């Protein structure tokens, strides 16, 4: 409406300008009129006035047209600016709904499940649960509720909201290091949502003690499954490949899809947790760092013996390839059923990498060192491929190791479609033959 009003005003202005200076006419007597058709009229004064009048009219039209165009352009720019900076109510509503939906995805594991749990506040986006309820739901941290133990405390099973089983990590934070790990883990996990990374549900504080509440992983850690009382009997070849693939997907998310990237820095079988269907999820982000956030040369050496990459151990060099090395060690555990470090004498230990590499690259020896639980249950080609991936991941030189994305793409075809890969099992696996040539892992 405003624009139409302005156009109308400009139109009236043009009419005024035209009417203010009409073309000059020279009235002539009637008896001369008949001659004008056959004789040219020589009236210099009148013709000049006509030219001057038309010139003024053209100038007026040009000025008014230019002003109109400038005005329309200005109004258009103003409209765009207003709608960009101050969106309409409908757009605001849509944006608000989209934002709430995104928040809902991140907050769903925590807030939606704690409908009757007593909360005493928020730590960023993380609910702070009343300590008394934590104590009550763990039976006052009864020993029989312990699921596992870590460097700074134990993990307990608890039942919140009557039917929600969760895991509660109890951290004794008398030192700044422990407090920093607590803050680091809560901060990172509150921002990360991925099917292969443990979900943070809440936290709690009581004096110097901190509590982190996670979703419960019913089948415990990969370490307990492989090296516990069952010695891996519940893990078939296909299940082990699925666990390796899940772990690679979790790591790829940290390395490639988090901005800035995250280096886990404590990748190991005890930090890979398994749910009721043996879906694997990465846990324990206390030592994780954001790549590029600080000088990694000044970071205190941390990690677990047997999983720490040589360049990090010797030179303090920390990159995403450090996680790839640790993943390679986990892959060797899945393949061989051995611990990352084993005693060979009362005062002597040997790493799985040192022991396995010479045999992994020899196809005549490889079948003999595979975990007896899964020996001869897989296609030999798949066995060789997994061995080759593991060997590349634990190369001493970081530049020779693949990116976790490349590892992921190598594992997908080795996992059945039912377990999240692309492999279709059409026949019974052949037995491994010792006549096959050795693996070629040279660079």
What report would you give on this structure?
This protein has 443 residues and is of the alpha+beta class. Among the domains are: 114-215, Phosphorylase Kinase, domain 1 (2-Layer Sandwich); 222-419, Transferase(Phosphotransferase), domain 1, CATH 1.10.510. It has helices at 2-20, 30-36, 44-85, 89-111, 131-137, 176-189, 222-227, 237-257, 310-315, 320-336, 352-360, 366-369, 380-393, 404-411, and strands at residues 119-123, 126-129, 146-149, 154-160, 164-172, 200-206, 209-215, 262-263, 272-274, 280-282, 289-290, 341-345, 348-351. The strands form 5 sheets. The protein has a 5-stranded antiparallel β-sheet, sandwiched between helices. Strands 1-2 form a two-stranded antiparallel ribbon. Helix 1 packs antiparallel against helix 3, helix 8 packs antiparallel against helix 14 (404-411) and helix 10 (320-336) runs antiparallel to helix 13 (380-393). The chain is extended, with a radius of gyration of 38 Å. ATP binds at residue 170. Residues 141-412 form the Protein kinase domain. GO terms for molecular function: ATP binding; protein serine/threonine kinase activity. The chain crosses the membrane at residues 58-81.
């Amino acid at each position: 409406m405003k624009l139409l009003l302005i156009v109308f005003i400009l139109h009236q202005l043009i009419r005024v300008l035209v009417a203010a200076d009409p073309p000059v006419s020279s009235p002539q007597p009637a008896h001369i009129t008949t001659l004008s058709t056959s004789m040219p009229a020589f009236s210099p004064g009148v013709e000049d006035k006509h030219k001057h009048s038309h010139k003024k009219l053209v100038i007026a039209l040009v000025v008014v047209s230019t002003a109109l165009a400038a005005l329309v352009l200005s109004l258009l720019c103003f409209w765009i600016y207003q709608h960009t900076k101050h969106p309409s109510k409908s757009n605001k509503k849509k944006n608000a709904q989209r934002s709430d939906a995104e928040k809902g995805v991140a907050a769903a594991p925590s807030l939606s499940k704690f409908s009757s749990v007593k909360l005493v506040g928020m730590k960023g986006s993380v609910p702070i649960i009343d300590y008394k309820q934590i104590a009550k739901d763990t039976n006052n941290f009864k020993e029989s509720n312990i699921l596992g133990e870590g460097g700074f405390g134990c993990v307990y099973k608890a039942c919140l909201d009557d039917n929600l089983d969760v895991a509660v990590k109890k951290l004794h934070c008398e030192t700044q290091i422990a407090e920093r790990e607590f803050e680091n883990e809560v901060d990172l996990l509150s921002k990360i949502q991925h099917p292969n990374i443990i979900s943070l549900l809440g936290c709690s504080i009581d004096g110097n003690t901190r509590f982190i509440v996670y979703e419960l992983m019913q089948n415990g850690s990969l370490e307990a499954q492989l090296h516990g009382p069952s010695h891996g009997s519940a893990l078939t070849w296909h299940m082990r490949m699925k666990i390796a693939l899940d772990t690679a997907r979790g790591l790829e998310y940290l390395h490639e899809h988090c901005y800035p990237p995250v280096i886990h820095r404590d990748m190991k079988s005890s930090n890979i947790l398994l749910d009721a269907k043996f879906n694997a999820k990465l846990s324990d982000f206390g030592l994780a760092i954001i790549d590029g956030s600080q000088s990694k040369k000044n970071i205190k050496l941390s990690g677990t013996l047997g999983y720490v990459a040589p360049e990090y151990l010797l030179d303090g060099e920390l990159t995403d390839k450090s996680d790839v090395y640790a993943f390679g060690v986990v892959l060797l555990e899945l393949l061989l059923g051995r611990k990352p470090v084993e005693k060979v004498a009362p005062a002597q230990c040997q790493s799985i990498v040192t022991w396995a590499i010479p045999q992994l690259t020899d196809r005549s020896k490889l079948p003999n060192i595979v975990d007896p639980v899964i020996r001869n249950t897989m296609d030999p080609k798949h066995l060789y491929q997994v061995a080759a991936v593991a060997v590349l991941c634990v190369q001493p030189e970081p530049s020779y190791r693949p990116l976790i994305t490349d590892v992921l793409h190598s594992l997908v075809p080795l996992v059945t479609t039912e377990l999240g890969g692309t492999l279709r099992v059409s026949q019974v696996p052949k037995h491994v033959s010792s006549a096959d040539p050795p693996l070629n892992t040279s660079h």
